[in-house]
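Lab manual, section 2.4: Encoding a predicted structure.

Procedure: take the sequence of the chain (181 residues), apply the prediction step described in section 2.3, and record the output as structure tokens. A sample record is shown.
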Amino acid sequence: MVERAQAMAAHEASVSGVNWTFGPMVDIARDARWGRIVEGAGEDPYLGAAMARAQVLGFQGPRLGTPNRVVGSVKHFAGYGAAEGGRDYDGCYISEELFRNVYLRPFQAAIDAGVGTVMSAYMDLNDVPASGTSGCCRTFCAATWVSAGLSSAMRGLSPAWPFTATRAARKTPLIGASPPA
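Recorded output:
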């Protein structure tokens, strides 16, 4: 049902000339005070991953360039839904184990489904700006999922954002993987 709903939205957008959507939002949110909780699938990483996959396939179809579909942008990489006190834009502190096994699962599912782009979060993750440095991107995305060719369409920002992470470019699964060296 989710895939069909997003396919209808993609069709309506594409016939209007829109070819890229800033969705799906796949942040894991465990604090009901967070104002954006309604956009995601909640607190369960399994459900979040299933919803991420369905939404990407609905928006994009089985591959990028499917007629009457739009390119998806999975967001907000990553940990944005864990904002302290449920306050939007506030930083968060997440252990690597929790980050990998809970917060990254929906992103892994979206990338496995072939999502066209990934949008950075805009808060501090463990005292490091998520989009202001390339550490998070390179550690978890480039080194784990994408084999080469991170590109920047927005010069002057981190050279790793935004990047394309297609299924064909994915290197290794994140879940259960060792931290990159």
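Check your result against the sample. Strands lie at 73-77, 117-120, 124-125, 128-129.
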